[in-house]
Design brief:
Blueprint (H helix, E strand, L loop, with lengths): L1 H4 L8 E6 L3 E5 L2 E4 L5 H12 L3 E6 L11 E4 L3 H12 L4 E4 L6 E3 L20 E3 L3 H6 L2 H4 L4 E6 L5 H12 L3 E5 L9 E8 L2 E9 H16 L5
Helix pairs in contact: 2-7
Bound molecules: cytidine-5'-triphosphate and calcium ion (CA).
Cytidine-5'-triphosphate (CTP) binds next to helix 4 and strand 9.
Pathway: Cofactor biosynthesis; coenzyme A biosynthesis; CoA from (R)-pantothenate: step 3/5; Cofactor biosynthesis; coenzyme A biosynthesis; CoA from (R)-pantothenate: step 2/5
Catalytic activity: (R)-4'-phosphopantothenate + L-cysteine + CTP = N-[(R)-4-phosphopantothenoyl]-L-cysteine + CMP + diphosphate + H(+); N-[(R)-4-phosphopantothenoyl]-L-cysteine + H(+) = (R)-4'-phosphopantetheine + CO2
Family: In the N-terminal section; belongs to the HFCD (homo-oligomeric flavin containing Cys decarboxylase) superfamily.
Length: 228
């Protein structure tokens, strides 16, 4: 009932959210990944849905239930996430990249489990860079024309504001959101710094659920829908 009565500033908007980590296979039984519970991205997908949007969540491997009314596409690798997100973004109005994408993947994925050969020798892994999902989508014609509004996240360990502004420009996004404070992996609360071309807005410490609702309201305001 509360969701029914709530304002719907994103009614008619299609929102795509990436969330969680990616998993980059080394062989059939091993891989490398990033720390990410996916909680913030899932909370944003839920809040966007409750704000009236049609929401697609492109999720890496996480242990979270799909928010009600949200379409979910499960992926493993950065390349899978890239393909799904680029495809979905073609018909989206808002793209929100919260995923902790692995920046590199093993250059080769062995098709059989790599075995110890008894000599004590260790495998040498070479890496290649993964595609940048956010940068590619933000530099697409749709985004550049203003038809698609892109939001990035940043995990920074120092110089939060300066790094966030630099990342915003480098990624080509109008809005970049930085996590404030110590690592928030798996936690249920957080604080956010919103960086856009007008400066900085702080969303003080709160649950990820509340922060997601506030962030969705900030995004809705920026794309022209008022949160009543
Ligand atoms: N991102 C992405 N695809 C990648 C890497 C990052 O879509 N291959 C997105 C993340 O989802 C996030 C934003 O880009 O929204 C910033 O990610 P971050 O890891 O902070 O930035 P990087 O550009 O990867 O730079 P670095 O990790 O070196 O700070
Ligand atoms: Ca990165």
């Amino acid at each position: 009932l509360i969701a029914f009565l709530a304002p719907k500033p994103l009614l008619g908007q299609r929102v795509v959210v990436t969330a969680g980590p990616t998993f980059e296979a080394i062989d059939p039984v091993r891989g490398i990944t990033n720390h990410s519970s996916g909680k913030m991205g899932f909370a944003i997908a839920r809040a966007a849905r409750e704000a009236g949007a049609e929401v697609t969540l492109v999720a890496g491997p996480v242990h979270l239930p799909t928010p009600r009314g949200v379409q979910r596409i499960d992926v493993q690798s950065a390349r899978d996430m890239h393909a799904a997100a680029v495809d979905e973004a073609l018909s989206a109005d808002i793209f929100i990249a919260t995923a902790a994408v692995a920046d590199w993947r093993p250059a080769q994925e062995a098709d059989q489990k790599i075995k110890k050969d008894g000599s004590g020798e260790v495998p040498q892994l070479a890496f290649v860079e993964n595609p940048d999902i956010l940068a590619d989508i933000a530099h697409s014609a749709r985004a550049q024309s203003g038809a698609l509004y892109c939001v990035g996240f940043a995990a920074e360990s120092e110089n939060l504001e300066a790094n966030a502004q630099a990342k915003r420009v480098r990624k080509g996004v109008p809005l970049l959101v930085a996590n404030i404070g110590p690592a928030t992996f798996g936690k249920d609360d957080n604080a956010l710094l919103l960086v856009d071309d007008e400066g900085v807005t702080e969303l003080p410490h709160a649950s990820k659920r509340v922060l997601a609702q506030q962030l969705v309201a900030e995004i809705a305001r920026r794309v022209g829908g008022e949160m009543a």
